[in-house]
Amino acid sequence: MRQLTGLALIFTVLLAAYSALAEAVLEPTYSSEKPLYAFVVVNEAGTKVLKLVFDESQGTGKGYDTIYADLNFNEDLTDDAVIEGTIRGERGYVQGSFPSIEVPVPYNEKAEGIETPCWLRISYTGYEFEEGIDHRFSFDARIRLRGEEAVWEYSWPKTFQPVAKGAGAVATSVVGEPSLLLNVSPDEENEGHVRVSGHLMVDRMPAGSIKKDDQAVRPQIAIRNEQGEVIHVLELSSSGLGLGPSGIVEYSAPILSGARSLEARIDTGPLAGVITAVRPFAPAPPILNEPVYASEKPLYAAIAVNEAASKVLTLVFDESKGTGKGYDTLYADLNFNGDLTDDEAIEGTLIGGEGYFSGSFSSIAVSVPYNDKGQGIEEPCELTVQYFQFSPQTIRSYNEEGERILVESGEQTQHHFMVSATIRLRDEAAQWECFFFSPLSPAEKPEQVLAVALGEQPSLQLSLVPSDAAEGNVGIGATVMAGKGSLSCTEDGQPLMAHLEVTNERGVTIHSLYVDAEKLVPG
After folding, report:
1. How far apart are the C-alpha atoms of 427 and 132, rounded to whole Å?
2. Is the pLDDT of residue 62 over 70?
3. What pLDDT band is residue 447 in, cutting at 50, 70 and 90?
4. Nearest CA-CA partner of 320 in 288, 359, 356, 287
5. Which of 141, 208, 137, 176 shows the shortest CA–CA distance to 11?
6. What is the pTM of this model?
7. Domains (ranges, CATH) in the chain?
8. Which residue has the higher pLDDT, 511 or 245?
């Protein structure tokens, strides 16, 4: 069985499906003047493409509440049961949901003989703007495969983009490439502990769950020391990484002497086998001397700025206008001596008002090279910190009966910090500049802080979308990722060229694309 671990295979499946979309289909009479068409690849070989048409039973512009699906794959949408959904909302905003769709097609040979090998549950949201209505569709795909000793069930959330007839739709596969993300943050409720969170991702979206014989699969997370030796193993809850719709599970772990990294392993069974993730971190150094803060609640953070995590930069965020007014001052121990009073305070700017602030700070030049390839480079590391604050506020939502209600978005003010890091390295022929984007998790007490490690393992995420520029073409989207954030690189100040290949079913390259790497990273 081919494993969905290669980008070329995913490209091949989607493009093969795309080429089959122009086939004639017998259609019903629609109530909407603007029905939308979508296509879902439901098997691994890409030979079974489910055709979907979304209709508005109440008329054009009233919201998509009807699906016609060619579930018997005979190119006739008139002989299948109509799938009726429900919509709720008001002018300017509507939400729609549909009953689960049972698809009688096994994903591959490991699903042969399994009753109901695939389900789709589709949801829809429509936002009205001056320029028109923005329609957003997603589905939860549930597929079942048989391993050597058990039946495995996967629940993947996917977004897709239906289009008008003739606009050139791109098929969406029911499966994606799974990956793991790990994070460590302070545990403010349990002194001496940290929160370990794991995110099971599929195509950059939080996954639903993986089950083996109807039992949620639990990941194994080990804490390793500098020598790579396991010094502690975390036992997660029985729901594993499939806890809740976001696919996130958290565990409170003691801060262990010598701990330097987390390593997660999860068995995804016959779909992709065992996948792993490593999250390096470092304990924050002690603070020997601090300034007098204007805020009663300064926040502490730390960043390991070199590959060995032997140089950890301590940061403290202060509110110059007083507690609750927003963090606009940053103290950084740039000479790494534990004294925050002998470094110049970094003033930031705040924008916003009641309930919301956004702030940014001047770039911080760090004189520490990332590794031996950064030796001799002027300004080998540069950091920029951004800050967002959200206060509790009332937002609109809907109850189960579809009635509009008001709910509180949260009980406490939320602070979000992000750090952008530019790392400069030199190889034999050129100087490289790599840009990383990562979240920070400041703590209210310095002893709760664990350093964020820069330079997570990069990966490449690809997507296909309809092309508005040329009929018969598809738009190719690609983002270079490092952990949860994006990554870009330049060589001697020039953006890199990315080489993308389109292959056929036999793995033969039928087209090559060379793209400016700056175009691979949005923003």
Report:
1. 51
2. yes
3. confident
4. 359
5. 176
6. 0.65
7. 7-173 (no CATH), 178-282 (2.60.40.730), 284-455 (no CATH), 459-520 (no CATH)
8. 511
How many angstroms separate the Cα of 370 from the Cα of each of 36, 152, 215, 307?
51, 43, 43, 5
Residue 237 structure tokens: 């809850």
172-173/36-41 β-pairing: parallel
Give per-residue pLDDT as tens, 339-377: 999 999 999 988 876 667 788 898 999 999 988 988 988
- Could you give the CA distance from residue 402 to residue 390 in angstroms, rounded to a whole number? 27
pLDDT digits (tens, 9 = 90+) for 110-132: 998 898 899 999 998 887 766 66
3-state DSSP assignment of residue 128: strand
Q: For residue 275, give the H/E element and its range.
A: strand 274-283
Sign of CA dihedral 452, 457, 463, 469: positive
| Both tokens assigned to 42 | 């439901």
pLDDT per position as a tens digit, 123-176: 988 877 666 677 889 898 999 999 878 899 888 888 888 888 876 667 888 887
Supply φ then ψ for residue 265, to 5 degrees: -135, 135
Q: Which of helix, strand or coil describes residue 285? A: coil
Between the alpha carbon of residue 192 and those of residues 195, 285, 301, 444, the distances in Å are 10, 15, 16, 13
Residue 362 backbone dihedrals phi, psi, to 5 degrees: -60, 155
Within its chain, how far is the Cα of 405 from the centroid? 29
Residue of 359, 363, 322 lying closest to 346 (CA atoms): 363
